[in-house]
Model the fold of this input.
Amino acid sequence: MLKIVRNKKRQNSSEHSSGDQKHSHNNEHGLLPVRLYVGIFIVLLMMIFMNIGISMLPIPSIWIVSLLIFVAIIQTILVAVFYMELIHEDKFYSFVFGSAVLFMLLFFGITLGEIRGRDFFTATEGVKMMRGVDQNGNFAPGGPKLEKKSEGSH
Amino acid sequence: MSAHNHEGEHSKFLAHHFKSMSQQTAAGKLGMWIFMAQELLFFSGLFCAYGFMRFMYPDMVTQGQSSMDWRLGGINSVILLVSSLTMSLCVRSARSNNKAGTVKFLVATMICGLLFLVIKGSEWGMHFHEGYFPGKFFNPVAHAEIQDPLAHIFFGLYYVMTGMHGLHIVVGLGLMTWMLVRANRGEFSSENYVSLENTSLFWHLVDIVWIFLYPLLYLAK
Done:
């Protein structure tokens, strides 16, 4: 015990600055037990089978997709917290990764919200959107040439 | 745990522009997390395209998904999950100064990555056999289940998403090969492990991307 304390003291005295001491504290975290890694693996495995089960449920598609994404998010959190060891890393790493998640959600929200807005304008303002045309494949970039397309081009 | 830390001494793995190994480790990890934030935003563009496609062509996407074999996708999910476990144990072994364990778990992770690519490649092969090529090359054979010409949009995105993911697997395997060489040289220890841990973080990110790809491409009918 005394030896450990002495080693630690020597280690601290060799640090050049208080900033380094902070880094040292952040990076020299303990090891997670192997049993925990295996436990997380089993939970993640069960979640894969849970997702397969959800896909076979006789419920509307929107609920299936929502449930699948919900389970996937929990799986992601488990991987990030335990396998990527965010549980005992510097909280700044979580902030960096979390801010990317935040911008991703903003990106999804704005982009996918805009599509819903198109339907709103189509219904209320009578604005003709490309979607109706697109269903025929006419405006699909690089798509196969349909008969309608060749007619339209003349 | 024996303290195997020579902060005061100049480690041979310490780059000249760092004061100590712990500072070097912190800088390396921060750089990796910033890179991973960027990776997340990169893949989010593809997932957003998927959401867009699903909203615009719900019937076509359902039809396209009917050609996906959820069993093969499930096997690949399990393989990637096992690889994540072995990669975590690999870093743990390195930090415990267990060279044999580090090498063993690294090789196990690489085998899982290769298996994943083989299964993914065979899936692509099956789709090509049916004529489900991306974009303007989409030309299903007569007996193919999907004949809707719009399905080229689904397969285009499917190849891009799984292809980019596969490319990340290949990059991960390349990094692991490099780590294997270094591990064999006995370079990793409780003092010097940041490059191995960064490789592990990259591999876990690849796993996270697949955690979303599998349900969205194979299961969400």
In short: The longest helix of chain A spans residues 91-125. The radius of gyration of chain A is 27 Å. Residues 90-133 of chain A form one domain.
